[in-house]
Amino acid sequence: MSNYNQPRIIQLEEGWNDQIKAKAIDVLIDILDNNFEGGRKGFDPGEYIPIYTTCYDMCTQRSPYNWSRDLYNRHGETIQNYLTRTVLPALRQENGIQLLKQLRVRWKNHVIMNNWLKKFFTYLDRYYVKHHSLPTLSEAGLRHFKIQVYDVIKSDACSAILDMVNQHREGSVIDKDLVKNIVELFEAMGMGNLEAYTADLEAALLTGTSEYYKRQCQQWIVTDSTPDYLIKTERALEEERARVADYLNSESEGKLLNCVENELLESVELELLEKEGSGCRFLLANDKSEDLQRMFNLFGRLEHGLEPMASIVQKYITSKGDECHTAREERLKVEKAKEQNVDPEFISALLELHQKYLNVIRTDFAGHALFQKALKDAFVDIVNRKTGKYSNAELMSGYCDRILKSGGGEKLSESEVEGKLDRIVQLFSYLTEKDLFAEIYRTQLSKRLLTGRSLSDDSEKFMIAKLKLQCGTQFTSKMEGMLGDLAVGSDYRSEFDARMRQDNFSTKLDFSVQVLTTGFWPSSKTVNVVPSTEMTKCMGEFKKWHDSKHAKRKLTYMFALGNATVRAVFGKKSYDIQVATLQAIVLDALNGGVTYTFTELAEKLNLEEAVLKPLMHSLSCGKFKVVKKEPSGSKINTTDTFMANPKFSASTRKFRIPMASLDATHNVKRVEEDRTHAIEASIVRTMKARKTLAHQSLVAEVLSQLAFFRPNAKTIKMAIASLIDRQYLERSADDNGVYNYLA
User: Fold this and answer.
1) Residues 699 and 716: beta-carbon distance below 8 Å
2) Any idea what DSSP says for residue 152?
3) What angle do CA 676, 678, 679 make, to 5 degrees?
4) Which residues form the Cullin family profile domain (predicted)?
5) What is the helix (H) or strand (E) element at residue 569, kind and residue range?
6) Are 29 and 93 within 8 A, CB to CB?
7) Which residues, listed in sequence order, are joined to residue 654 by a DSSP beta bridge?
8) Is-above-0.90 flag for pTM?
9) Strand 738-741 relative to strand 692-694: parallel, antiparallel, unpaired?
10) Which own/partner pairs from 29-34 qualify as long-range (CB within 8 Å, at least 24 positions apart)?
11) What is the pLDDT of residues 29-76, one digit of tens each?
12) Which residues of the chain are under the pLDDT cut of 50?
């Protein structure tokens, strides 16, 4: 049996008093109390290792000499005693900023003490704490500080911090590092979370912030204009954001800014927006772009902050539209002339108004949906309000005709034309009577194309493409067909001319025919006029050629849509007169100095009174009186006589004699008829799918399907009644407000 040296047993009091307390704890406390005099920061390895070894030996001795529990308890008692006997009394002697400075020192010392004690008693953490599920030495040290110090002085520390924050808000220079250090203490007291910081500091900070900015609001709202107030608010938000970055927890930023927003913005939003001489309306009226952007950005921070602002913007734009309508009314009164379906000044004013506030919404309000809706709602009201005899659909179409017609009054480059058309289509998008616009536009397009007065094919195609993008293929298919007819027509004319030369067909006329597809072009009054002998001869030749190519197609001549250039000689001067085909036929009938009464001319040409009167008026009562009427006057009577005007003279050799349209009143009637058909078709289509439907549901469904116009409920009700009479629908026997579909 071998012998070995038994390790010496260390008794509790011996190890604690002679080694741990005397050589570690007392020395550490002395270092802390003397503020690290002599530059000593802690223990060197020669001092630390023996203490650690003593603790290790005392924790690894066999029971009953294993002192792990006793050392763990004495670790806690040491910290607790130091905190209650030294730290807390020192803190209680201070207040305000001095309290915070003392607290910073004591907290820093506590962290050092906690770290060194953890090092000395490391073996406890490794085994005893782990096996007995106890708080670690670091956690235990923090808990003691929280209970013995933090819970006692946290209220005073919080008040001191709030005082410093308010001083900072008032422009004073403060020790930001000191505040940051104490905030970190509050964070640490959460033991891994922010509960202590939130409950003990942040809550009071938020309350104080609200109270501070409430006082500021009460002062600023009285003394400052809205832009100045918002500049101060913007600065306050920036300062609070910087304050968080400098010395507060980042989690507080949103809450802190919310307090500022509630007090400086939400509580007085309407007062700021409506403030006389500086509110939102004033800023819009004076083009204060920078102030509007600031207003948008600030009120955009609130959950519903932009809604009141958007409402003001909508009302303001509507009021500017009212001014445009009022100006048109005043102009119509002053001019006292016959109102026309073209008012470029009015439409230009609407275009400028729309462009201006479209740019405002894009730049100042970042294209926000609420403001886009405000613009839309305002212009839906403006564009669909009728001032004068003509609707805005007619005025807008007339404006387009003026731009797209050569000699229309405006000399524009191609890019300028496209820019104006692009803007008019934007305005058109708000129009509820899109079908009326389409009908009038198509009629005017046909006149431009058939009279050769279209500015350019490219401009016409550009406009049609814009309308197609806005309303779909169905809306523009006929317009595209019209352009297609003209493209094919040029080939037809070349082929027919070649045929006439081949057959040695001679004529005094420069004769050509434009073949139109009936479904594409606006319906026009068919005039069965008796053309001149030479014209009849050419027409017969064209019919033979056309029938040889298209035997199944029927040709109907539309003399009201054609045009001609007539060479006329009055005295010694000759003129080239641009007229409609009907006018040319009348001039040919009066050629050679013959005189006809109205009745005789009507019989000779087989023309109705309603057609011949505007014809003769254009030739005898207009600017160029190439026909002499007896008796003279500005009105055509059936008793008048007509002859070529032998005394006619004009300053220009070439001129055009316009003629009133024979279909001037038909557009609106045609549109109304088409609308009736569309409403009835929508009702039948809906009821066929649903079989049974309540009145309000049916009305809503029909309105959702009609894209190009918006009928009122009364019109839909009348259409339903008509369909019931014609046995497409019936009223339910159980409920008079419910309809059944009849197959």
Assistant:
1) yes
2) H
3) 65
4) 391-620
5) strand 563-570
6) no
7) 576
8) no
9) antiparallel
10) 29/82, 29/86, 29/113, 32/109, 32/112, 32/113, 33/86
11) 888 877 766 566 778 887 888 888 888 888 888 888 888 898 889 888
12) 1-3
Task: Give CA–CA dist 236/213, Å, rounded.
Answer: 9
What is the DSSP secondary structure assignment for residue 50, as one 8-state letter?
A: H
Residue type, 213: Y
- Strand pairing report for 573-580 and 654-656: parallel
Q: Across the chain, how many H-helices and E-strands are there? A: 33, 9
Structure tokens at 551: 């035997």
Amino acid at 171: G
List the domains of the chain with CATH numbers.
Answer: 12-192 (1.20.1310.10), 195-303 (1.20.1310.10), 308-471 (1.20.1310.10), 487-550 (no CATH), 559-656 (3.30.230.130), 668-741 (1.10.10.10)
Q: Are 331 and 395 in contact (CB under 8 A)?
A: no
Residue entry with tokens 């212009």: 379
* Residues in CB range of 456: below 8 A, 6 or more apart: 414
Run of H or E including 44: none
| β partners of residue 596 | 642
| pLDDT for 336 | 64
Token pair 């940051």 is found at 180
Which residue's structure tokens are 């007995």? Answer: 132
Backbone dihedral angles phi then psi of residue 478, each to the nearest 5 degrees: -70, -40
What angle, rounded to 10 degrees, do the helices at 226-247 and 151-169 form? 140
